[in-house]
Amino acid sequence: MYNEQILIVEDEPAIREMIVMTLEMAGFDSLQAADVSEAHQQVVDHRPALILLDWMLPGDKSGVDFCRMLKNDEILSEIPVIMLTAKCEEDSKVHGLDAGADDYMTKPFSTRELISRIKAVLRRSSALSSDKPIEIGNLSLDTKSQRVTATGKVIEVGPTEYRLLAFFMSHPERAYTRTQLLDQVWGGNVYIEDRTIDVHIKRLRTLLRPHDCDKLIQTVRGTGYRFSSFIEPS
């Protein structure tokens, strides 16, 4: 039994009940909300392990607005969010991820895939919840404060670059393909082209370069990328 509480934010009772039954069969406990106001109260009262958040909600705030509000809150930002929506346009999906969502599912979805996505997101969240900072070379990543430092100097990184760096530093010395990195950092959202990784790798290297840490992110020819403190002689 998992026993983690999952908050379902969905205004359609039939869909909400279906998800509740699916979660219960998989061993999760459920919380429910039909709008942003009720969802916020549930989050404050219960601090769920994960939120399943519908894109379209009644009232003047959408699911994306609520997600962005959570991710801008220092206390609540660590709660992972999976967006649920009937929208299928790529820009809508990217909009949800840009708001800070950890994964994205388009309705209708299979209950098996839903549980698989929930478990994957919870695993990633758990891996980044350690109290001890991750230190490799001169680089340090504090998962609690989500602060990155190099020789004591703070490096300002965006949320996507932070997630990418956090994955790299918690999985060093192993080569990953672009597809594997997308699966791990974005949650397997295949509608994002794998070359998107190259853009974020470039940004991350640019941020690390003034601190002489950019060479920790290494290109592996024919595969993808690797994070390693071993720098091969040129």
TrEMBL record:
PROSITE patterns: OMPR_PHOB, RESPONSE_REGULATORY. Residues 131-229 bind DNA. The modification 4-aspartylphosphate is found at D54. One of its GO terms (molecular function) is phosphorelay response regulator activity. The keyword Iron-sulfur does not apply. Keywords: Activator, Cytoplasm, DNA-binding, Phosphate transport, Phosphoprotein, Transcription, Transcription regulation, Transport, Two-component regulatory system. Its main location: cytoplasm. Residues 131-229 form the OmpR/PhoB-type domain. This protein is a positive regulator for the phosphate regulon. Transcription of this operon is positively regulated by PhoB and PhoR when phosphate is limited. This is Phosphate regulon transcriptional regulatory protein PhoB. It comes from Psychrobacter fozii. The lineage of its organism: Bacteria, Pseudomonadati, Pseudomonadota, Gammaproteobacteria, Moraxellales.
